[in-house]
Amino acid sequence: MEFSEHIKTANVEDVVLRRPFHPPMQGTLCVTGHHLLFSNRDGDSSRLVLLLLRNIDAIEKRPSGSSGTITLKCKDLCVLQLDIPGMEECLNIARSIEYLSSLDIVSDMYPFFYRPLKLSLQDQWGLSSAEQNYAQMEELQDRWRLSHVNKDYSVCPSYPPAVIVPHSIDDETLVKVAKFRQGGRFPVLCYYHRKNGMVIMRSSQPLTGANRKRCREDELLLQAVIDGSGLGYIIDTRSNQQAQQARMTGGGFESKSSYSCWKRLHRQLERGKVLQESLIKLVEACGDHSHSVDRWLSKLENSKWLSHVHTALATAGLLAECVERDGHSVLVHGSEGTDTTLLVSSLAQLILDPKTRTLAGFLGLLEREWLLAGHPFQQRCAHSAYSHARLRLEAPVFVLLLDCVWQLARQFPLAMGFSEPLLLRLAMEVYASDYGTFLCNSDQERCAAGVKERTHCLFQFLLKPSERERYSNPLYEPTELAIWPSVQPQSLQLWRGLFLRWTQHAVHLEKAQEELRNLVIECRGAS
Amino acid sequence: MMEHIRTPKVENVRLIDRTAPRKATVGTLYLSATHTIFVENNPETRRETWVLHSMVASVERPPTTPSGSHLVVHTKNFQVVQLLIPQERDAMDVQASLARLSRPEKYSELYCLSINPNANKEEREESWSFLDLQADYRRMGVPNNLWVSTPANSEYRVCDTYPSELFVPKSATPPVIVGSSKFRSRGRLPVLTYFHQDTLAAICRCSQPLSGFSARSQDDEQMLEAIMKSNPSSDYIYVVDTRPKLNAMANRAAGKGYENEDHYTNIKLQFIGIENIHVMRNSQQKIIDVGELKTPSMGDFLLGLESSGWLKHIKAVLDAGVFIAKAVAEEGISVVVHCSDGWDRTAQACSVASVLLEPYYRTMKGLMLLIERDWVSFGHKFSHRYNHLEGDSKEVSPVIDQFLECVWQLSEQFPCAFEFNERFLVQLHRHVYSCQYGNFLGNSQKERRDMGLRERTHSLWHQLWKDRAQYANPLYRADHTQTQGMLRPNTSPYCFKMWKGMYNRVEKSAPPRQTPTDLLTAVREETQQLEEELTNHQERIAALRKGDQTKGNAGQKTNKVCEEECRPGGLAPPTGDGPFTSPPQDYFPSQGGPPGPAMTLLLGPSKGPGPDDLSSACSDMESGVADLSSPDDSKDPDEAVYCTA
């Protein structure tokens, strides 16, 4: 594709750029296929501002006399303003931005063009394979096996080629189970609790439908999961009522009569449109500059964002409690099993498993539980909180995960090997990135588009020594214990670092962080 | 006091953990003259919980249950102790005793006055001489050629709620001083409280003028004129009325009110809108209720927070301070601050402004001096506001609570700017109510002098100073940029948070169970000795190159954490019936562990904050799980079993 045909005006002089925390800056604006480039030469020093067009969520243009003003609302929640002399230039640029910021074809996106000198496309893409993960967990190998039944993605298009299932269940059975689960997402192992051998499984809903269809193979598989321990829990991320209603559209739940050894617990987690609207309301509240505390608190409450954080953490806590305290295996699913299911299962792993709390471990968790497990990133993160476009499949499930992780890290400042800047960076990269990691909706799509050959891997990059330094937590003191978050509303806070990043001047807090970092290094150095 | 104790000892009492009602410890309850004490039966731990009678706000006795009678003790610093007493009769006795013991009728019944003042005379005298208010005025550069000390109030004749020594403009003659005081509510004339040496602008405070609809006083007008002229570079002053304008106008009908801008030349009147003590009392009760909600949903919590209005009031107080500080430091304009009587909102606004303006008031000693000046010496009615004696409940209001909270909110925005930590503020708050020290007794300097408190009680300030190691903020550096100059806080609504460390201490699992600063303190102490050794062995030149700064800091840090918290030195333990060998310690454990019910302390081998504590903190976190089963969705009978399992 030729981007140039969408760029009528590539350069404008004497543009004024206004952005948070900086004085207005005059300079030259330049539109390229993937970026807005703003440069200003002030005597000897020159400054360059580079903005990925993909990052732009909404654009508003306003004429004023012979010139025009473009307001750019970005997916990282920053709001910029460009004063452009010349009405025609302004409109041309606005048109280019509108088109180029919402490219649909994956291979047109910037990660396919990003070629930094320091990185090579030959470098490993991704952190680890299913085979490696399996090989590392010797304890589970006598009861669990690696199945390649999905090697050509034919059994479940959103699953990776290899998954872990009970030893006693053969591939043929898996194929049958997949037919009984929405999208073919049959129950697979996502976490093995070394302490007691209990596991967390995840899947999509069973397709029991209105006439309570059963699937012997599905029942067999689940029976094999709890073989010997007698009882398992199913955490359904929908309310009981929602699960009942799902039967009308062919979905359903595991009934007591067919799955007598499994106990269902319902916890309603919002997703989809409700979640997206919650984000929109929250961002709107954070941008309200009125000076009334009442109004702020009421808008914050009304957005319900913190309620979603609360429910997600509480459900993850419940799941972890079932595994660690009650000593039972758990299957978690909602409907499709690609959103709240992953949210709950990955938070529970952070609570239980110290390995996931290191920088590499956390990125590994995201790779396993989000990228390979088929969270549809491209659909969910097409737009963020500012977009005027009609909502389609957008939902900030991953941002909600990052928020919950931030809450955990805030409650346990010593337990995580990574720090807030990593979460902030991920929150930005998931919407607009130089890297190919969050492109597409599944492993299959990524392979088909050549993402792994033709783009760079964000996670690999974040683990390079230079970056590691920036994203690690200076206070990190590994603990083998589970970290049980408090889910009292008083204990949960608004994630200022993300949502008030551009409104509240966080410089004092950043300085304090820096000071803390220096002190710890100094102290540790001395001892 | 002993005659009020009907039952000195009750056995087989259960202390109930409010976050996990099924977890209870069995023990013996003792009532002493000064404390309620619960001692665990478990011979391994024998944990003790002490509650000072004067800290008890209320004792409720819900209907008796088959297992006995519950007593719910709410303390004045928002903690809750729940006991289960087997016999209803005992419970009634304990409740009746506590009701009386917690509401002393005479000052002499208070703890600080119930001890022998001469048991440790030297220490007592030393404790009172620790702070010198006059030295702080000198530090500000007062007196000088603009502001002088007046003897007018040396016998408290001009104003009996003011300090004996007052600073007024040099040009204010004695008749003007007296005349002005006659035109001000309760004689509280405009006098200096803070002088800004860089801009020569001053903060003065007073009460409302007795202006009514038309009255005027030439002396008072001259007084304000004199204040303006004491700042050579400016040609007007601000008069900040911290009340909502409507309230100020309503006062005119009672012959009071505010300055008429036609009568006073060159003043700019500014209303701030801090609500009165009654509104604040009700608001605080609401936020306490929010903190005590058992299992609120996020919506309950946020709506409760909103409808309490508490954060709105905190913002109003902070906004007042910001206005004054900006006028003084940025515009170089002097400010006269008043409200109605000039002892509540005025104290808040002036002291917040001082904290913003002057780095010194962000140190431990500086904050003590500030409280001593703007609150204690200027006649903030401590005994009335904090209910020291059984009295008029309409006089009670959390005025200084709000000041301390403003400081806390600021410390959240400027983590490196304050020498002290949250614990220091919590401890100050506690002692405003506790009456363990003589500092806050009475309602004015004159009352305290008449009671002879310096001769009969100990001073809190010195004790806090001795314990300063545990109140230190490890992020504070005297040379840090945040430490310098004026603080310019963001007062947008989203900057204000509920002060969990104050209002939500009942929640056992409440984070932060590990705080970075606790870790830092621990790591620092660990390396302390090594550091010192290193310094000792360094050659002199190397030491000099390191700079005095680090050496000075290291010197401060060497103060060992004092295990025995603030308690007047040399006090004998109360004559309780329990087998107590150490002085009562009903405080927070100073360890970095979880904030358990704050009044409990292990009397076992005491463990300082260290890495070990952090891991033990982790294991304690397990108790947090009880919260995890959300009540919202527990209607499914299947899972109800699980939730209560």
TrEMBL record, chain A:
BP-aspect Gene Ontology terms: negative regulation of autophagy; phosphatidylinositol dephosphorylation
A Gene Ontology cellular-component term: cytoplasm
Domain of life from the UniProt record: Eukaryota
GO molecular-function terms, A-Z: protein phosphatase binding
Listed InterPro entries: Myotubularin, Myotubularin-like_Pase_dom, PH-GRAM_MTMR6-9, PH-like_dom_sf, Prot-tyrosine_phosphatase-like
Domain Myotubularin phosphatase: 124-499
Family the UniProt entry places it in: Belongs to the protein-tyrosine phosphatase family. Non-receptor class myotubularin subfamily.
Protein name as it appears in the record: Myotubularin-related protein 9
Taxonomic source organism: Salvelinus namaycush
TrEMBL record, chain B:
Binding site for substrate: 276-277, 339-345
Domain of life assignment: Eukaryota
GO aspect biological process, one term: phosphatidylinositol dephosphorylation
The species this protein was found in: Salvelinus namaycush (Lake trout)
Pfam families to which the protein is assigned, alphabetical: Myotub-related, PH-GRAM_MTMR6-like
The keyword Nucleus is annotated on this UniProt entry: no
UniProt keyword annotation of Secreted present: no
GO molecular function: phosphatidylinositol-3,5-bisphosphate phosphatase activity; phosphatidylinositol-3-phosphate phosphatase activity
Descriptive protein name: Myotubularin-related protein 7b isoform X1
Family under the similarity heading: Belongs to the protein-tyrosine phosphatase family. Non-receptor class myotubularin subfamily.
Region (Disordered): 544-645
Biased composition (Polar residues): 550-559
Keywords: Hydrolase, Lipid metabolism
Active-site positions on this chain: 339
A GO cellular component entry from the record: cytoplasm
Domain Myotubularin phosphatase: 127-503
